[in-house]
Amino acid sequence: MTDITDHDLAPADAPRERRKPRRRIEKVLRHLFGITISAIFLAPLAWALLASLKPTTEARQPPIPPWPTTGFSTDSYEVLGTVGSGLWTHAMNSVIVSVATVALSIVVSFFAGYGFSRFSFPFKNLLFVLIISTIMIPFQSILTPLFLLLSKIGLQNSLFGLILIYTTLQLPFSVFMMRNAFDGIPKELEEAARVDGAGVFTVLIRVMAPLVLPGLVTVAIFAFLAAWNEFLAALVLMTDQDNYTLPILIAAVRSGNFGAVDWGAVQAGVTVMMVPCLILFITLQRYYLRGLTAGAVK
Amino acid sequence: MSITEHTAEAAAIAGPDRTRSGRRKQRRRALAGFLFVSPAVLLVVVFFLIPLCSAAWMSLHRWPLMGEARFIGFDNYVRMWGDTRFWDAMQFTIYYTIVVTIAIFAVAFPLALFVQQPNRANSFYRTAIFLPVVVGFGSAALLWVWLMNVDTGLFSPAAVALGITEEPVNLLASFNGVFWSVIIMVVWKTAGLTMVILMTGLQGVPGDILEAARIDGASPAQRFRRITLPLMRRTIALALTLSVAGSMLAFDQFYLISSGGPRNSTLTAVYWIFTQSFVSFRLGYGSALSIVLLIILVIISTIQLRLLRDPRDTK
Asked: Which of A73, A106, A141 is the last residue of a domain?
């Protein structure tokens, strides 16, 4: 399995009529392998989704077969709806934190990208390196002082504090992304607009924003996924049950904080956490992969 | 990077201007640029730089959650030498990092080669393999710990049903059960990411060189070893860096799956810091541990980036 380019599949000097059947077998084997691998990677996701739709009695059995045999039911979701401060509250916490992180990341990195790309000012490179180099520092190692800092400014145990931290953690990626996006746009466009008498902000919003939109979408996706899935900071900083985000809530369900562990409810929670990420990725795949390769091709 | 003829004109307009009004304009532009980047700089300073400095400062104190902090110099660092639990956790983290990184590459590299050609079927396979990447570590761990459950999970009952074992296996009860289950989970969850990164490297290998080598009679294995691998060095180094840095900071999966057990055998470095800081509330000692972990990670990243930056080998 080292090499699978098409022209390698058959020796070049093999007679034509011999090559064809071999090609076909190769092809069938390839697809068999591909489908098997895809199934292996998709199976756990499907297993959780199907388990969450089983009636309570069935959810307590081993998930063999994975699909409900006695009809679909929303039992597990009903159980999940009542844990903690209610599923709705925690889901809203997660939505608020993620959406606000996206909005703030977009605004801050849009301006920063423009500033770093188009202006020269003292210490510009130093400031840029300062922002980018924070990617080297694991935030886990500054969690303790962060906890105290937030307590001091009254943002400990508040969703707003979490939003600011998530935005800061995303900055190296988002600022880098946006500076490159602005670098890719010719300066004449701006100058033309400015000559027509448009002000700085009008040019930025009317002319530049649409041009760097792909970059902004990429920034948004990464910010959303990071904020939606983050566990450790939320676990440490959110001490009030009302402020738990989804991952913290489901972890509490799994450790039996709300009575006996209901595995059906845990899988319902996993599904609620998973599905938005999957939908987001499938619909905006192109932008997501662009963000990945931007780092790799540098 | 589009520097065209036009910009010469533009530069003439906006370029270094010797008149007084021109200089004022320049200063105004500098200020504008500075204002544009200031929100980002402010966030990094307040939520990154200040905490980083205060972590160093706190590590020199005995710092309980309640009561006075007391300056104790390097006592925390001295104490660390005797903290066997920390070194055990460090050792476990390094062991886990090595195993998981090898496992991820062993799965992701063949897959990258397999789905490399752009066609319909391959893009479906790529997406399927990549999907677990976008679900969070928390979700993945909570899904996995259910599959690992001895009575109501999947692995143990399935193994019994298939006749692999007679007795149900409680994967959570043994170090190896936890360790290898987590390894499989992390490979499942992150192989797609490494695969995509490696694919970008594969695309950078010029087809005509491979073709020329083929005509010269190099076998597929030789072509891979002598051409593809050397040209992919930077990409491989990048994927390695990501995998190693991520694994060294592992926390979610061990917290959610095994709570560091059985008997603290799966405590990771971050997990131990978390316990010290937010369970025992020894904030000063936790900070000292954080600083040491940070230094270790910066060293690892620097070594790996060196590999990235290196010009091609002259071998």
From this structure: A73
Residues from chain B that touch A277, judged by Cβ atoms under 8 A, are 134-136, 139
Task: Name the residue among B37, B110, B152 with its Cβ closest to that of A61.
Answer: B152
**Structure confidence by residue, pLDDT tens digits, A79-130:** 898 888 889 999 999 999 999 999 999 999 999 999 999 999 999 999 999 9
CA distances in angstroms from B32 to A131, B26, B40, listed in the order given: 19, 10, 14
Q: Domain range holding A164?
A: 84-261
SS3 B71: strand
Question: Looking at the domain assignment, is residue A14 inside a domain?
Answer: no
Q: Name the one residue in this structure whose structure tokens are 């300062």.
A: A130
Indicate whether A104 and A241 sit together in one domain.
yes
Determine, for residues A254 and B131 on separate chains, whether the beta-carbon distance falls below 8 Å.
Answer: no
Together in a domain, B179 and B33: no
B118 and B220 share a domain? yes
Q: Which residues of B touch A269 (CB under 8 A)?
A: 142
Would you say residue A1 lies in a domain?
Answer: no
B287 interaction partners in chain A (CB closer than 8 Å): 144-145
Q: What is the CATH number of the domain that holds B245?
A: 1.10.3720.10
d(CA B39, CA A127) in angstroms, rounded, equals 12
Other beta carbons within 10 Å of B258: 25
Q: Please give the residue of chain B at the shortest CA–CA distance from A221.
A: B134
CATH number at residue A126: 1.10.3720.10
How many structural domains is chain B composed of? 2
B67: left (phi over 0), alpha (psi -120 to 50) or beta: left
Residues A232, B139: C-beta atoms closer than 8 Å: no
For helices B137-147 and A263-283, the axis angle rounded to 10 degrees is 140
What's the domain range around B282? 84-314
Kindly state whether residues A241 and A195 are assigned to the same domain: yes
Chain A residue closest to B162 (CA)? A64
Residues A250-278 pLDDT 10s: 999 998 888 788 889 999 999 999 999 99
> What whole-number distance in Å separates Cα of residue B180 and Cα of residue B245?
20
Q: Kindly report the backbone phi and psi dihedral angles of residue A121, in degrees, each rounded to the nearest multiple of 5, phi listed first.
A: -150, 165
Interface of B with A in 99-118 (CB under 8 A): 110-111, 113-117
Question: Which of B311 and A193 is assigned the larger pLDDT?
Answer: A193
Q: Is residue A78 part of a domain?
A: no
CA distance to partner chain B, nearest, from residue A17 (Å): 22
Instruction: Give residue-wise pLDDT tens across range B69-110.
Output: 889 989 999 999 999 999 999 999 999 999 999 999 999 999
Is the pLDDT higher at A297 or at B122?
B122
At B275, the amino acid letter reads: T
